[in-house]
Amino acid sequence: MKHLRIFFCTLALALIVPTALFADVELCNAFTDHMVLQRNQQNPVWGWDAPGTKITVSIAGQKHETKTNADGRWDLKLSAMKAGGPHILTISGSSDVTIQDGLVGEVWVCSGQSNMAFSVSSANDPDLESLTAKYPQIRFLSVPNRASQNHEKNFNGAWSVCTPETVKSFSAVGYFYGRQLHQTLGVPIGLIDNAWGGSAAEAWIRRDLVDNDKQYEVLSKRWKGVEATYDHEKATQQYQARLKKWQAAVAKAKAAKKPAPNRPRAPRNPLTGNSRLGNLYGGCLHPIIGYGIKGAIWYQGESNAGRAYQYRHIFPLMIQNWRDDWKQGDFSFYWVSLADFNREAPEPGGSTWAELREAQTMTLSLPNSGEAIITDLGESDDIHPKNKLDVAKRLARLALVQDYGYKIVGRSPRYLSNSIKDGKMTVKFQDIGDGLDTFDVREPIGFTIAGKDQKFVHAQAKITGNDTIVVWSDEIKEPVSVRYAWANNPVCNVQNKTGLPVTPFRTDDWPGVTIDAK
Q1: What are the helix (H) ranges across 22-164?
Q2: Can you give the pLDDT at residue 146?
Q3: Is 501 in a helix, a strand, or coil?
Q4: How far apart, in whole angstroms, are the C-alpha atoms of residue 188 and residue 181?
Q5: Contact between residue 512 and residue 310 where contact means Cβ atoms under 8 Å apart
Q6: What is the pLDDT of residue 3?
Q7: Pick from 295, 289, 439, 467: nearest CA to 370
Q8: pLDDT of 88-122, one tens digit each?
Q9: Is the bond leading into 86 cis (omega within 30 degrees of zero)?
Q10: Is 463 part of any domain?
Q11: Which of 224, 212, 216, 352 is nearest to 276 (CA)?
C-alpha cells in the first residue's frame, strides 16, 4: 500500500513538474512592440510565470528583479524616464521576451461609448485625415469589447504605429486629441482605446461598489432579477419561431403585392452586454488598470440620460473607482458634455439631456477634472456627430492648461452667481477667458426665465460686462430662476471670445424629469 501511494505521488509530480519547468514568461498585452511608457514617473510592469520564478526586467540601462508569487504573477516598477526612445524592454524568467521600439512620452486612456469609439474613417474628411496621419511617434492600443463579471487579467491586443492605414479604425476623438498633444508637446503619445458603443456608466464600475451601496439598491436588484431569470437559449428559440412566422408573412405579402412586415429583432444577451453592472470594468478596464498613464478622456452619458439624477453620483463614483484601483493618485480625467441632439423644442420644458449635462458639470467638484462643452457641434438627427476634431481640441485645451502649463484659454464659461433687481436677473460667470461673446448674432440667445410658478418663457438677454449677462422677460415681473441651453437640442449662442460655448445651467434646483429614475 505504501509503495502504491509513492507511485501515485511520483506520477502526480511527473504531470505537474514539466509544466513548471517549461513554462514561459508572459506579459500583459499592454506591453508589446511599439508601446509608449508614461514619462517622468515610475511605470508598473507585470506578467506571469511559474510560481517562485526569478524575473529580470531591463530597459534603457536600468535593471530590476523580482519573483513570481504563489499564483504565478510578478510585478515591478521601472524607474522614471524622460521622453524619447526607441528603447528595448527585455524580460527574463522561464524564457526570454524582448519588446522592441518602445517609446517614452504621454499616455492617455480614451474611453466611453460610441462617440469615443467613433472612428476616423467615419468622421469628417476621413480621406484627408488618413492621408496626413504619418506620425511614427503616435501609437495606438485598442482593447477589444469584452464583457465579464470576472476581473480579467489580460486582453487580445498590441500597440501599433500611427499610419494612414492604422488611423482609419482608431477613435477619432482619441486620435485628434493625441495629435494635438503631440504637435504641441513634441513628445511621443500613446493612446489606449477601450470604448464600447452604447455602454452604461455602471458597467464600468467594480460590481461590489454598486451592489453594496444602498442608493443603488433598485439598480442592483433589477440586475439580480435579470441574472436569475434570463434564459438566452429560450429567448433564441422564441426568436427562431418568430422568424419562421415572419418568413411566411413575407411570402404571403409578396404574393399579394403588399409591403412586407418588419423582420423581428434577434435577442441580445443582457448578461454579456455593455450595461450589466461591472461587465466592462471586468472585461475592458481591469486588464489595463495599473498601466502608467497621464490621464483619461471620456465621452459617454447618452445611455444614462434617462437616469440623469443618478448620474450625479454614479459618474463621480466611477472616476473615483478608477483612480483608487489604478493606484496612481487623482490622475486627470476629462469628459465631453452631451452634444445637442433631437428636434429643437419650440417652448421651454423638461429635458433628460439637460439634466445629464448638469450631472456632468456637477462632477467638476472632483480634483483634476474638466469638461468640454459641445452644444454647438451636435446633429439633431444623428446621435453621432461627425465633427470630432473640435471635440478633441476642446479636450486638448483642458490638458494643455492643467497638465502641461500652457497659458491659453482651456475651459468654457460657467455659471457662478446671480442677483435680482427691478424684475431682471443678472447672471455672473466664471472661467470667462477674455470675456463673454456671442456667435452669429449680437443678442444672446438660449435663456429662459420663470417666476415662482416655475413656468418658463423665452427671455431676452444682454451682455453687460466681461462676465455678466442681464436676463428678463416682460411676461415675468418677479423672476426666480433663469436657465440657459436647457433642452435636448438647445438654440443658444453665448461663448467666450475664444469660441468655447457657455456651459448649460440653471439657477434653480426644482425637481427635474429624471429625479425618480433609478
Answers
A1: 114-117, 126-131
A2: 97
A3: strand
A4: 9
A5: no
A6: 45
A7: 295
A8: 999 999 999 999 999 999 999 999 999 999 999 99
A9: yes
A10: yes
A11: 224
Contact 104, 39 (CB under 8 A): yes
pLDDT tens for 2-39 read 443 443 344 444 444 333 444 799 999 999 999 999 99
Q: Of the candidates 171, 193, 215, which is a domain's last residue?
A: 193
Calculate the alpha carbon distances from 291 to 76, 78, 322, 330, 364 in Å.
12, 11, 12, 15, 25
Q: Three-class SS of residue 353?
A: helix
Q: d(Cα 94, Cα 20) in Å, to the nearest integer? A: 9
Kindly state the helix (H) or strand (E) to which residue 46 belongs, with its residue range. strand 43-48
AA letter at 144: P
Cβ atoms of residues 74 and 55 within 8 Å: yes
C-alpha grid cell, residue 325: 484601483
Cα of 8 vs its chain's centroid, Å? 54
Element (H, E) at 36: strand 36-38
Q: Whose CA is closest to 479, among 500, 453, 505?
A: 453
Grid cell for residue 349? 420644458
**Residue 395 domain-assigned (yes or no):** no
Burial class (CB in 10 A: 0-12, 13-18, 19+), 511: exposed
Query: Which set of grid coordinates corresponds to residue 40?
Result: 517622468
Phi/psi of residue 26, each to 5°? Answer: -130, 145
Q: How much is the pLDDT for 271?
A: 97
Q: How many domains are there within the chain? A: 2
Local structure of 56: helix, strand or coil: strand
Q: Please give the angle made by the CA atoms of 350, 198 and 143, to the nearest 5 degrees.
A: 145
Are 414 and 496 within 8 A, CB to CB? no
pLDDT tens sequence across 163-221: 999 999 999 999 999 999 999 999 999 999 999 999 999 999 999 999 999 999 999 99
- Give the SS3 label for residue 57: strand
Does some domain include residue 397?
no
Q: Which of 175, 193, 211 finishes a domain? A: 193
> Cα-flanking dihedrals φ and ψ of residue 247, to 5°?
-60, -40
Entry pTM: 0.94
Residue 480 belongs to some domain of the structure: yes
DSSP string, 289-348: TTS--SEEEEE--GGGGGGHHHHHHHHHHHHHHHHHHHTS-S-EEEEEPPPP-SPPPSS-
350 CB neighbour count, 10 Å cutoff: 16
Count the Cβ atoms, other than its own, within 10 Å of residue 376.
19
Domain that residue 436 falls in: 414-506
CATH assignment at residue 177: 2.60.40.10
User: What one-letter code names the amino acid at 469?
Assistant: I
